[in-house]
Amino acid sequence: xxxxxxxxxxxxxxxxxxxxxxxxxxxxxxxxxxxxxxxxxxxxxxxxxxxxxxxxxxxxxxxxxxxxxxxxxxxxxxxxxxxxxxxxxxxxxxxxxxxxxxxxxxxxxxxxxxxxxxxxxxxxxxxxxxxxxxxxxxxxxxxxxxxxxxxxxxxxxxxxxxxxxxxxxxxxxxxxxxxxxxxxxxxxxxxxxxxxxxxxxxxxxxxxxxxxxxx
Length: 215
Known about the structure:
Blueprint: H1 21-40, H2 54-63, H3 66-79, H4 83-110, H5 136-151, H6 156-175, H7 181-200, H8 209-213
InterPro entries: PAP2/HPO (IPR000326), PAP2/HPO_sf (IPR036938)
Transmembrane segments: 88-110, 147-172, 184-203
Protein name: Polyisoprenoid diphosphate/phosphate phosphohydrolase PLPP6
């Protein structure tokens, strides 16, 4: 009354009559991602559609975990008496550590929760593992796959197996209900790109003599 203007409503109470196209597209993609991830989580629990395959999926999960890769690489470094092999293993160790740090930072920044149908029984977790984006297993699988293909001389069947392993690790993350589809896709892309960083920063006796002196 008296011609005074009504107090504006808080922003969160206002109805957006003209939402942006980008906002609609992102919301739709998120909805599709969540729907597809839930439908594909066929091993998320013992009572799921493919619950009997859950133990096998968990073995695949361990094969892409950081701890076995770190321990195996360190053991190889300690046992190797070949300078070329030590150089490759030292750079693999550098790649694995860089991967762990980068994934932890991104997870801490994005803070996307894991799918609601996920059963938290993962092999050795740390604080940031409560977050979902990106998939560290997928990132590591793509990184290790490129590394192995570039630095190990393998027969064609073994090269195919390495690529299949990386793909299966990524798919298993969604099937176990650990991650959404976009977590895995971004993880694979991140791991693929991360290898290029490792190659650019390649450690050698000339570029890092102090490190190689330790071995």
